[in-house]
Amino acid sequence: MGGISDYMTRDHAECDERFARAEEAAQARDWEALAGKLDAFVEMARRHFDLEESLLFPAFEQRTGMSAGPTQIMRSEHEQMRELIESLVGAAAARDADGYAGFAETLLLMMQQHNLKEEQVLYPMIDAALGADEEALLERMQGAHA
Fold this sequence. Notes:
- By secondary structure, the chain is mainly alpha-helical.
- The protein is 88% helix and 0% strand.
């Protein structure tokens, strides 16, 4: 794997870990803990999506000329996940355990499929397309992450 693949795969793992912590609090119906854990997940997921959409995908599209391909599909999936995340937040605020569980299950499946496509297909394509420019983009991404 290349630098971007490694970096973004680690980012996925951190998002997944934060999601799991929120899920544990929801299953325990610990609404106080859930609020903080869900906020941490939401913040990380939004930052991850923004990083891809503002830096990573445009760099790939500019280099390859592909703007209607895999990055368009990923953006669409991000939008679907954003909507599910908002539903999760609403269910948590309403202390709706069943609603939360349903949205969480759907979101988890979508994240797993989405991450697999990015990690197995898109990120390696980006690593290959960017070549020597990958390191400079990775530095910009890490700076935006800070």
